[in-house]
Design a protein that fits this description.
Helix content is 37%, strand content 25%. It has 247 residues and is α+β, with helices and mostly antiparallel strands. α1 runs parallel beside α3 and α3 crosses α7. A hairpin with a 3-residue loop joins β4 and β5. The chain is built from seven helices and ten strands. It folds into two domains: 128 residues, 4'-phosphopantetheinyl transferase domain (Ribosomal Protein L22, Chain A, Alpha-Beta Complex), CATH 3.90.470; 100 residues, Ribosomal Protein L22, Chain A (Alpha-Beta Complex), CATH 3.90.470. The termini are far apart.
Length: 247
């Protein structure tokens, strides 16, 4: 008998042109003291925007699902630096929630699941990525990519994002060398090596890859969230929970 279908959700945001007051306002909504310290240590406004948007995306999703104000949700890191939910900060009624975050200077994305570990990565296809081929690819993968008549950098980025997504699904972060592991080279959704693998194109020449721990059938929902919409949802969530707590 087939196992019941599981729904995984990917949300992604195209980052706006930077407006410093907007992400500082968002930081006040969702970052705890430790996260705010990380936020302030970033040297560029763009990196601060990426960081706070990723945290906001995750906390809004969890807050909406469990009826908790986004500013009450605490994320902690495992031994390899992967963010996970601090279950002492909210009641999940015994349910598991797995998530992972990725970002470039143009896109922030997160994947959410409830039965299996998940990993996600996004990269923009750029010609200068040729310089990192040997640090990303195994010798077999390098031979394959170099044999391609076209789309060499495209396929390199697809492989690269799958590798980073796999390590993040495993919970190791980037503690292992990328050229020490291999991933499926097919562009199609595939199950191999105990994982489900799929890759998607996003606007402005980006590759997004998701890796899901094997064992369950699932369906993937991918949707774009507007940055302004996220801010409004966070604000509405906090106001709603505050009103319920203090009518």
């Amino acid at each position: 008998m087939d196992k019941p279908l599981n729904i995984l959700e990917v949300q992604w945001i195209a980052l706006p042109k930077h407006k410093d007051w907007q992400d500082r306002e968002l930081a006040q909504y969702v970052l705890d003291e430790e996260e705010n310290g990380v936020y302030e240590r970033y040297h560029t406004k763009r990196k601060r925007l990426e960081f706070v948007t990723g945290r906001a995306l995750v906390k809004e999703y969890i807050g909406e699902k469990y009826g908790v104000a986004s500013d009450k949700i605490k994320l902690i890191k495992n031994a390899y630096g992967k963010p996970v939910l601090d279950k002492s900060s909210i009641r999940t009624e015994g349910q598991e929630i797995y998530f992972n975050i990725t970002h470039t200077d143009e896109i922030v994305a997160a994947v959410f699941g409830h039965r299996e570990q998940v990993g996600i990565d996004v990269e923009q296809v750029r010609e200068d990525h040729r310089s990192i081929m040997t640090s990303v690819l195994t010798s077999r993968e390098l031979d394959y990519v170099n044999s391609l008549p076209y789309n060499v950098i495209e396929i390199l980025c697809m492989i690269w994002t799958r590798k980073e997504a796999r390590l993040k699904a495993e919970g190791y972060g980037l503690s292992r060398l990328l050229n020490s592991i291999e991933v499926p080279l097919s562009l199609e959704k595939i199950e191999a090596e105990g994982y489900h693998w799929e890759s998607h194109r996003l606007p402005n020449n980006h590759w997004l890859s998701i890796v899901v721990e094997g064992g369950h059938r699932y369906s993937m929902l991918i949707k774009e969230v507007k940055w302004e919409e996220l801010v409004q949802r966070i604000d509405g969530n906090i106001r709603k929970q505050t009103t319920q707590q203090f009518p």
